[in-house]
Amino acid sequence: MDMWTALLILQALLLPSLADGATPALRFVAVGDWGGVPNAPFHTAREMANAKEIARTVQILGADFILSLGDNFYFTGVQDINDKRFQREGDGAPLGAGSIQCLPYPDLVGGSA
């Protein structure tokens, strides 16, 4: 996703609140550098604990989306769209808990070590 596409998405997220006359607010969670481990299920206990706390915070404060800032495919990366690691991490699986499951999750993928 290029910068202009990302800015367009952010602007579109703001428009509904402006139409209602409310003060515009964009609430999101940014997560980066969460590469996990090379073997299934690919996440660590620390990642799952962080996901639980993020879900709790989102439930209390709200959020419009979660933005993955990349550096999330460590060790061998992914091979193709069918790679199980991509299917787990690309869909936000470590963050797929509680109130955050239904949020949009744009992913700036990359970062193989």
What can you see in these coordinates?
With 113 residues, the protein is mainly alpha-helical. 18% of the residues are buried. 35% of the residues lie in helices and 7% in strands. It has helices at residues 3-19, 45-61, 84-89, and strands at residues 28-31, 65-68. Mean pLDDT is 70; it is low at 88-93. It is globular, with a radius of gyration of 15 Å. The chain has one domain. Residues 1-21 form the signal peptide. This is Acid phosphatase 5, tartrate resistant.
Distance between the termini: 21 Å
State the strand order across the main sheet. Answer: 1-2
Low-confidence stretches: 88-93
Kindly state the mean pLDDT as a whole number?
70
Alpha-beta classification: mainly alpha
User: What is the radius of gyration computed over CA atoms, rounded to a whole number of angstroms?
Assistant: 15 Å
Q: Hey, roughly how much beta strand do the residues contain?
A: 5-15%
Roughly how much helix do the residues carry, as a percent range?
A: 25-40%
Shape: globular
Question: Number of helical segments?
Answer: 3
* SSE succession: HEHEH
Tell me the number of structural domains.
1
Largest sheet: 2 strands, parallel
By DSSP, the count of extended strands is 2
